Amino acid sequence: MSTRATPDDNSGTTAIAGSVHYAATGNAPLFYHAGPVPSGEPETNIEFIEHTVAIRDTRGSGREPRLDVEGAALMRHASGVRDFYDEDELQRTGYAEVADILQTVSGAREVAVFDHNVRRGADAAHPKHASARKPVFHVHTDFTAGSAPIRARTVLRPELLAGRRLVEFNLWRPITGPVLDTALAICDASSVTPSDLLPARLLYPEREGEIYYVSFNAAHRWWYVSEMRRDEVWVFKNYDSAADGRARFTPHTAFQTQSSAAPTRESVEFRAFAVFDD
User: I want to staple 24 with a disulfide (CB 3.0 to 4.6 A). Which of 47, 69, 99, 168 is the partner?
Assistant: First the structure.
């Protein structure tokens, strides 16, 4: 749970004290069952530890994160999707919108949107909400340096990948707004060291992936958007193949911003691969 907003003397912006959950080191190799847990096996061997961190509000700060520096960017965009719980409309209209946004903001040669999750903070109040997932309260990235290229080979044509820079982007937006109860916190990628990133096997019944959970580092800098609206979107990197000083991995997590009496958060995140000629 967060506390009230206070001035942040280090940045000149407003910050709140928010609780986020980091992974403890040890117990390697780490694993987490993303689907049904086989009988007799634990869901995970990861211990998550709650830490209170200062989370700066981008609203009115004058120094919003940048995609190649902090690993994220905030944009305005009014979606043409009328019902984000309609899978056909979401993939038909939403995917095309996301591809256009990412090409505009990044200058990519080509963008392929390949996945999405609709999330809802409360239990389903209507049958159409039943497929929505809950927000994730663990600091993580969606891919690792190993798993992103593997997944990209299932999405992009081989000739596009050959010798080109590869980036995995997420685009996150509220479905309803303003977001009051569970905001998205973005960790400044430039404050993350390689040793903070803990690879973990993500186990599905039919396949295996790999993500990074993140160990606590007091140097991490955090951002969020207060009362984020439906026409605002976060774009951030989960992976960038370039190792030239640009942001590569941007950890993120949900965190509670107000009491449970606030309207439940509903959101959608899209995942996409982009290739570049640089």
Answer: 47
Beta-sheet pairing, 140-141 with 208-214: antiparallel
Tokens of 264: 């439940």
Q: Which tokens in the block code for residue 182? A: 């569970």
Q: Give residue 262's pLDDT.
A: 78
CB 227 within 8 A of CB 179: yes
Label residues 15-28 b or e (16+ Cβ within 10 Å = b). Answer: bbebbbbbbeeeee
**137 pLDDT higher than 70:** yes
Distance CA 8, CA 3 (A): 14
Where residue 241 falls among pLDDT bands split at 50, 70, 90? very high
Q: What is the pLDDT of residue 123?
A: 74
Q: For 13, phi and psi rounded to 5 degrees?
A: -100, 175
Q: What type of residue sits at position 266?
A: E
d(CA 45, CA 33): 10
The C-alpha atoms of residue 139 and residue 53 are separated, in whole angstroms, by 12
Strand ranges, E, within the chain: 6-7, 14-23, 30-33, 48-57, 72-76, 110-120, 140-141, 165-174, 182-187, 197-203, 208-214, 222-224, 232-240, 252-256, 266-276
Going by C-alpha positions, the residue among 176, 164, 239, 254 that lies closest to residue 209 is 239
140-151 confidence digits (pLDDT tens) = 999 999 999 999
H helical segments located in the chain? 87-89, 95-106, 147-152, 158-161
